[in-house]
Amino acid sequence: MSAAKAAPAKKASGKATEAATPAKTDTPITLIEAITQALAWEMRNDDSVVVLGEDVGVNGGVFRATAGLQQRFGDERVLDTPLDETTIAGLTVGMAAQGMKPVAEAQFDGFMYPMVDHIVCHAVRLRTRTRGRLHCPMVLRVPWGGGIRAPEHHSEANEAIFTNVPGLRVVMPSSPARAYGLLLAAIRDPDPVIYFEPKRIYRQYKELVPDDGEALPLDVCYVLRDGDDITLVTWGAQVKETLEAADRLADEGISAEVIDVATLRPLDFDTIAESVARTGRCVIVHEAPKTAGFGAEIAARLAEESMYDLLAPVERVTGYDTHIPLFRLEMKYLPSVDRVVAAAKRAMAAG
Description:
CATH superfamily of the largest domain: Thiamin diphosphate (ThDP)-binding fold, Pyr/PP domains
Domain Transketolase-like pyrimidine-binding: 29-204
Region (Disordered): 1-23
Low-confidence stretches: 1-22
Protein name: 2-oxoisovalerate dehydrogenase subunit beta
Shape: globular
GO biological process, one term: response to nutrient
Pfam family, one: Transketolase_C
Oligomer: single chain
Largest sheet: 7 strands, mixed
Distance between the termini: 37 Å
Radius of gyration: 20 Å
């Protein structure tokens, strides 16, 4: 497990492109700006960090996550690639195997599928295949999820596919501060990380994020709100609705604990189990379709390891078992505050 306050990576040999001077941090920033800030910190402090992907250089990325980085660090460290996800993934694995720390971007979650061959067949197997002689310190940044009125292939929530892959970390921040700290930790991790970025909340709100190079720990859940009556478990963009649901429940005298999973694989189940041992009830909220979504894994673990702590069946509030509908019905597909509150009330009434 990464340390809670991991030190900044050491510089690789050779002259750094830019002095390691922190940016001003007295102004609140958005989640997308926190990602840019984290990338810039690592590139200032570690010459082995490179960024690559479609339009990440000259244009600064489709969502502008890499805006200004090519101008600051040059086109040998911020590389515009062809429109070819298979090649991007292959280059990333090759760079990582040769001692670099590549951070690649898949423009949208639905564009990841051509990358799966390199991720599943090579990136995650490199350490065991070579008996530890090689490893693969790569990060794949992926704008994730719906809610921005984008067309097909641009609004998928496919995280559960990758939580089934041994050797792969799957991370999803839900705030600017966690986006900054978790991305630093992901880049410094010696093994491959998929870093899902909930694009619906890229610019939804701002908070102060010190540009101090302090990583947050991977592989742990974050308890965002304490409660005694019911545990609400969620991740990504759904954290906002879940916290709002907790506020609504509090108005009705129900004390809800809210847990942001943050790292889906490996899962910090202990934090969830400890909470459920106190509350006796659990609602899991996620955007992906219900069947075989990652919430099913959490529910199964609760059934196996926490059955005697449960006072009511585990509830799931999810997307539906369809592709996300375009435009008019998109927000109806996503979990809402009303649906989370209703599920919590069912759990409260059941036991």
